[in-house]
Amino acid sequence: MSLQDKMLGATERTAFCVCCVLLILTDASSEFIHVPSLVHHGIEGTPMLLSVESQFPLDEVEIQGTWSHTKRSGSRATLVTFTKEAAIIDMTYRNHLLFKQPNVSLLVWKLKQEDEGDYQLNLNIEFHNKTGLVIKEERTVQVTVDVPVSIPVIKKSPSYAVIEDEANVTLTCSVDRGTRVVFQWQRDKTVLSPTDRYHFSKDSSTLLISPVRKEDKGTYRCVASNLVSQGRHSRAVELNVFYGPYNLEVNSGQGLRTGEVFTINPGELVFFDCSADSNPPNSYVWISKSHNTTQVITEGPRLEVRSYRLAQTEEYLCRAFNNVTQKQEEAQFTLVVASFGTGKEKHTQEGIPVSPLAAITVCSLFIIGCMLLFFIRRSCHPKRVLMSIYNRPLSEQKRPHRSGHEDATEDFGIYEFVSIPGKMESAQASCRSLARLESVQDMHTTIYDVIRHVPETPSHSLLK
C-alpha cells in the first residue's frame, strides 16, 4: 500500500469519527432509524405492522436489539431478540409475531385485546470501522386495539308524547359491538351540549331532559364512534311535546289597524283571523263584549263581520284553548266603524257619510216610483183608450159636448196620434159618422172628442 493510500484512508476514518462524535453531541441520533408512526390504532382480528426504517448501510455495521411489550396492566415481556444475522422470538409469541430483517420491523398477525400497550425498540449500532463506538437507539410505539362500532339504537322513555313543564324524557343510546365508544346527541342535525336542562351520562350514552319544553320538540339522533369507526348514526326518534297556546294574534287584511284598534269603512265586509302557536292545534272562540256582558259569536279561527250591522264601536275577544295542556290565551281588540278615506264602501253627501238607513230609504222610493210609472203606462195604453171609446153607445156619443176644461178629471190620460192601416171603406165610414155628429159644429172640439166619436164599425180592424 502506497503512502498516498494510507493517508487517504486515515482521512476518511477521521472524517467519519468526527461525524459520529458530532451526531452524539448534538443528539441527532434520530437520523439512524425512523419510525413512521408512533401511534397505531388497530382493529381486532386484523394484522398490524410496526414499521422501522434504517438510515445507515447495514453492511457497514453490527446491530443488536430487542422488541418488548408493556401491557395496560403494567406487565412487560420481551418479544424478540435479534442481531443482523439472526432473531429469536419468544416461544409464547412464535405464531403471533413476524420479525422482518434486516430493517428490524415487527408484524403482529392478528390483533387481540391483550395486544394493546406500548412496544419498545432498543437498538445498538456499531460501525465496522469504529470498533468500540456503540450508538443506542430507543423508540416506543403506542398500540390500541378496538372493535368497530355497530349501528346505535335509541330507546326513549316515556315512549308517548309529553306535556311541557310536566314531564321528563330519558333517551338512551346503545350499540351491540364496539369498544371505547363515544356518543353524541343531535336534535334536528344540531349537536346538543350540556345545559341546565340537558344532562348527559359520563360516556354520553344517556340524555336526560328535565323538564321538557316546547323547544325540545324535534327529531333526535345518536352518533356513535371510536378510534377505528367513523360516526355511525342511529335511526331518527321523534319527541312530541304538547305546548301552548303562545303568541296569540288577531289579524285582518281589511281596514286600518292601530295597535289593538281596527277601523273599517261603513258597509265593509271584514274578516278577522286568530292564530297562536300550539301543539295540538287550538280551538278558537270569538266573543262580543258590550255593557259588561259577553256573548259567544262563533267558533273557529275566522270571524266575519258586516259593519252595517254594528254600532260605531264594538269590542271583541278571541280565546284560544289547548285541550291537552288545558291552557288558554285571549286577545282583545276594538272595532271602529268610520270612514277613513280609502274610497272603499264610502258614500258621502256634502262631506257627511250617508247612513245605511238613508240609503235603504232612497232605494225604496226609487222602486216605488218605477212601479207607479209602470202601472200608469199600462192602464193608459192607446189601444185600451180606443177600445173604450169605440165600445160606447151611440147615445152617449151624441151627448152635448163639454169642454175638457169643465171636468178635467175625465180627460186625464196619455194621448197620442195613431196611424191605423186598414181598408178605404173603414176610413170613409169613419168620416161619414163624424159628419153626422151634432157636436161637430162646436169649434172647441178636442182630439179626445174626435177619438171618442169614432164609430164602432172599424173597431175590429183597429184591433187586428
Architecture blueprint of SSEs:
Layout: H1 3-25, E1 33-34, E2 39-43, E3 48-50, E4 53-54, E5 61-70, E6 76-83, E7 87-89, E8 97-100, E9 105-108, E10 117-127, E11 134-146, E12 153-157, E13 162-163, E14 169-174, E15 182-187, E16 190-191, E17 198-200, E18 206-209, E19 218-226, E20 229-233, E21 237-239, E22 241-251, E23 256-258, E24 261-264, E25 269-279, E26 283-290, E27 293-299, E28 302-306, E29 313-322, E30 327-337, E31 348-349, E32 352-353, H2 356-379, H3 382-390, H4 394-397, H5 408-411, H6 424-436, H7 447-452, H8 459-463
Parallel strand pairs: 2-11, 13-22, 24-30
Antiparallel strand pairs: 1-4, 3-9, 5-6, 5-10, 6-7, 8-9, 10-11, 12-14, 14-18, 15-16, 15-19, 17-18, 19-20, 19-21, 22-25, 23-24, 25-28, 26-27, 26-29, 29-30, 31-32
Structure notes:
The chain has 464 residues and is an alpha+beta fold. It has eight helices and 32 strands. The protein has helices spanning 3-25, 356-379, 382-390, 394-397, 408-411, 424-436, 447-452, 459-463; strands at residues 33-34, 39-43, 48-50, 53-54, 61-70, 76-83, 87-89, 97-100, 105-108, 117-127, 134-146, 153-157, 162-163, 169-174, 182-187, 190-191, 198-200, 206-209, 218-226, 229-233, 237-239, 241-251, 256-258, 261-264, 269-279, 283-290, 293-299, 302-306, 313-322, 327-337, 348-349, 352-353. The protein has a six-stranded mixed beta sheet, with no helix packed on it. It has a six-stranded mixed beta sheet with strand order 23-24-30-29-26-27, with no helix packed on it. The radius of gyration is 58 Å and the shape is rod-shaped. Residues 1-12, 15-30, 342-354, 400-406 and 422-464 have low confidence and may be disordered.
